[in-house]
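We were asked to recover a plausible sequence for a given structure. The inputs and outputs are reproduced exactly as logged, with field labels preserved.

PROBLEM: sequence recovery
POSITIONS: 799
GIVEN STRUCTURE:
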């Protein structure tokens, strides 16, 4: 989602408005000048004020009392115009509010922000006071007294000052740990709710199939099943298990529907030129699964077009499929400024009014982050361009969240119960980091022994740098790799040198990205080599940073790259350090896979770290020194080069025939990751070699730690339908379980071969399970050499 922090927007105060109603509630049709008195405040005994009434009745009653302007106010938000409502610095100004949102508002965008990047964000106490003041004004000073929904970003922890910040979602996915994921996002839910937020614009379940794309870090990787499983746990962490709102919960937002993760040329918001089959099998899959299993309350449409139709104007996607086929009842929110882009960029609307009508008719319920196009809906209804029933339906969906959240009964936040980062949160993030670090190579040098390792040199552009990635604020603290090593060994045993730079210093939020002067970097490299002479072991921290992989939200703020090469002279640094002959360990940070062949060839061990969160240095030290096993597995394949894209593992049988003079396979395959423990995975056994579709069948393997260290292993289940009416991938992930075993311990892992595991999308675009032979593969990665196979025969139903 785009953050244009310094964009000056047209002042549209005279055009604000919003509205909506849930699919299950009758659609009221009152417009300005009909029905109830539209100038007086309703009495205290109005149905919508009565908590004893059903939510449907309350919605219907409230909509029947609303003017068009009040309805449209509920389907819009306020962000940039928050600055117009400031006084005495950043205090709320009620006089300005009467001009900016006289009819109320649907959402207030990011109340944690003051006016710009995170260095101007509010403290938790300031945010609570601000939120309560806004709600008091809305309840007491607007005619209908409708509170606002407050939404925040929470991609990898609440993006607010002093909140807990863990690894980017790509690292969360690398943990392959459902329970850990839920614990992390429940932490963000408690902190968000305690500060007054009701909605978070998370999680991202885009399936990332092009590593050139700068938003890979925000995703859960390349596999739809993994994205669905981990994404569901994020939603449950935010919302809980049931439809009831409990204290410390917030409404989640799945994004971005759909096709966002394989943009043309790897360019953010580029067209998704994919077939309906690929759309349904790959990009729709996590959304469909989580809608069915998680009761998610919001879904965000994507910026891109899908086969010529922008998602914000795609009625087939948002109405027919999402609501019709999947039965989704929640709200669809726009991505930031995406409604106006229907006119300004996609050119499927002639102006902002046409864009607004096209979006809301196609199923978009609220325009974020500001009131731009949707205020024109007042005029559209008045001139007959838009049926008021469409507006009422959208209004009802937004109001439902306000009623379900209990905002009409208590819109305020208790300032004595604010939650910020705690020592318990630190421990959780530290553990999550260790569970997400992926060991790609180890020639036996790891783990290092603290007692005998001697002096360690930590070299490289990411050795002493804050590494959070995008959609971050200022956490309470950040532990760099250097600091983490010093904490483990003592400062006197750690040597530091920058060595080289990825880019000149900058910010994820700001536009300029400045390349490093090569001659200056060579001086840094020489200094690093000199510094490392006194070391017994060298650790080099390289990769990308927040500027080389980020959301490209405009032509002046880019983050996609046509290469996977590490930026600057990092490979020269690696070459020079390798010449020292000392043990060399590589740490690769950044938001997406990179070409690290040179690093892996010249080092003794390599970790893929991505971003690990505020405890990065401690997590790295825990793993390097063997206090923790490297628990991560690759959630996305690492290509050999940019020319090897696509590199995802679940390709079709006619793909990957080969390349002249090169290997066609990925350098490192999905699901791969080494452990300090040694593992024996028994051949899988079936509870029955064949069965009918309606019979229960399982596949079981026994995992044994045959090493002398405790560790974790991710047992993975893959399936291939040998013969089907349409082509199927060579293998598909259908199950995984993370197990933790001490030396000599073993555990049986069992997966169900149920209808969902064996189904596929048939020729008529419906999900079917058909008789035939299936290859069942169980192992430790998607690589053929890491899998053991058994054949299962599915018979037809009994006659």
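RECOVERED SEQUENCE:
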């Amino acid at each position: 989602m785009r953050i244009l922090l310094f964009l000056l927007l047209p002042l549209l105060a005279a055009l604000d408005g919003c509205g909506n109603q849930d699919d299950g509630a009758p659609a009221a049709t009152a417009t300005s000048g009909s029905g109830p008195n539209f100038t007086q405040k309703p009495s205290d005994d109005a149905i919508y004020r009565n908590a004893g009434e059903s939510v449907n009745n309350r919605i219907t009653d409230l909509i029947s009392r609303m003017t068009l302007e009040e309805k449209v106010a509920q389907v819009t938000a306020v962000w940039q115009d928050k600055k117009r409502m400031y006084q005495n610095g950043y205090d709320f100004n009620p006089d300005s509010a009467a001009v900016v949102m006289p009819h109320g508002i649907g959402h207030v965008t990011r109340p944690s922000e003051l006016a710009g990047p995170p260095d101007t964000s509010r403290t938790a106490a300031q945010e609570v006071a601000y939120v309560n003041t806004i709600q008091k004004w809305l309840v007491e000073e607007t005619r209908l007294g409708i509170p606002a929904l407050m939404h925040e970003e929470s991609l990898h922890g609440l993006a607010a000052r002093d909140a807990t910040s863990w690894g980017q979602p790509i690292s969360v996915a690398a943990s392959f740990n459902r329970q850990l994921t839920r614990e992390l996002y429940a932490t963000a839910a408690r902190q968000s709710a305690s500060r007054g937020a009701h909605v978070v614009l998370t999680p991202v379940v885009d399936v990332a199939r092009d590593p050139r794309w700068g938003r890979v870090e925000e995703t859960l990787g390349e596999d739809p099943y993994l994205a669905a499983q981990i994404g569901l746990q994020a939603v449950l962490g935010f919302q809980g298990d049931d439809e009831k709102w409990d204290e410390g919960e917030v409404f989640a937002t799945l994004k971005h529907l759909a096709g966002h993760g394989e943009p043309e040329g790897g360019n953010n918001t580029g067209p998704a030129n994919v077939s309906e089959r690929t759309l349904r099998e790959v990009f729709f899959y996590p959304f469909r699964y989580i809608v069915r299993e998680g009761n998610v309350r919001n879904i965000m449409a994507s910026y891109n077009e899908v086969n010529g139709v922008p998602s914000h104007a795609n009625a087939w996607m948002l109405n027919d499929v999402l609501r019709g086929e999947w039965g989704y009842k929640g709200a669809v929110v726009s991505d930031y400024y995406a409604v106006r882009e229907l006119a300004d960029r996609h050119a499927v609307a002639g102006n902002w009014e046409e864009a607004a009508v096209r979006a809301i008719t196609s199923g978009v319920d609220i325009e974020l982050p500001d009131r731009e196009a949707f205020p024109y809906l007042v005029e559209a209804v008045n001139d007959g361009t838009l049926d008021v029933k469409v507006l009422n339906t959208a209004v009802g969906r937004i109001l439902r969240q306000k009623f379900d959240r209990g905002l009409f009964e208590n819109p305020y936040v208790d300032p004595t119960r604010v939650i910020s980062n705690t020592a318990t949160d630190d421990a959780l993030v530290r553990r999550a980091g260790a569970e997400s670090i992926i060991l790609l190579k180890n020639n036996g040098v790891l783990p290092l022994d603290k007692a005998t390792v001697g002096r360690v040199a930590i070299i490289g552009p990411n050795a002493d740098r804050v590494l959070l990635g995008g959609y971050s604020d200022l956490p309470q603290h950040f532990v760099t790799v250097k600091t983490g090593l010093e904490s483990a060994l003592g400062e006197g045993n750690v040597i530091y040198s920058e060595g080289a730079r990825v880019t000149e210093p900058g910010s994820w939020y700001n536009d300029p990205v400045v390349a490093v002067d090569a001659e200056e970097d060579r001086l840094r490299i020489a200094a690093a080599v000199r510094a490392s002479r006194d070391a017994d072991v060298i650790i080099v921290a390289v990769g990308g940073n927040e500027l080389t992989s980020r959301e490209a939200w405009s032509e002046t703020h880019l983050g996609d790259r046509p290469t996977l090469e590490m930026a600057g002279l990092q490979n020269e640094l690696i070459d020079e350090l390798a010449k020292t002959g000392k043990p060399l360990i590589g740490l690769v940070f950044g938001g997406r896979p990179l070409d690290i062949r040179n690093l892996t060839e010249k080092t003794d061990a390599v970790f893929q770290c991505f971003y690990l969160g505020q405890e990065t240095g401690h997590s790295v030290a825990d793993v390097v020194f063997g206090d923790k096993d490297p628990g991560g597995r690759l959630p996305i394949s690492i290509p050999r080069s940019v020319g090897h894209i696509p590199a995802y593992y679940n390709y079709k049988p006619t793909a990957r025939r080969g390349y002249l003079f090169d290997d066609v396979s990925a350098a490192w395959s999905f699901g791969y990751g080494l452990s300090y423990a040694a593992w024996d995975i028994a051949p899988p056994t079936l509870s029955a070699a064949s069965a009918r579709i309606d019979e229960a069948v399982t596949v079981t393997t026994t995992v044994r730690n045959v090493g002398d260290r405790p560790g974790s292993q991710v047992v993975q289940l893959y399936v291939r339908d040998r013969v089907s009416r349409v082509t199927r991938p060579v293998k598909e992930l259908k199950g995984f379980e993370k197990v933790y075993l001490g030396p000599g311990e073993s555990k049986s892992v069992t997966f169900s071969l149920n209808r969902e595991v064996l189904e596929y999308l048939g020729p008529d675009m419906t999900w079917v399970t058909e008789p035939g032979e299936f290859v069942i593969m169980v192992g430790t990665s998607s690589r053929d050499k890491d899998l053991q196979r058994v054949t299962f025969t599915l018979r037809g139903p009994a006659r």
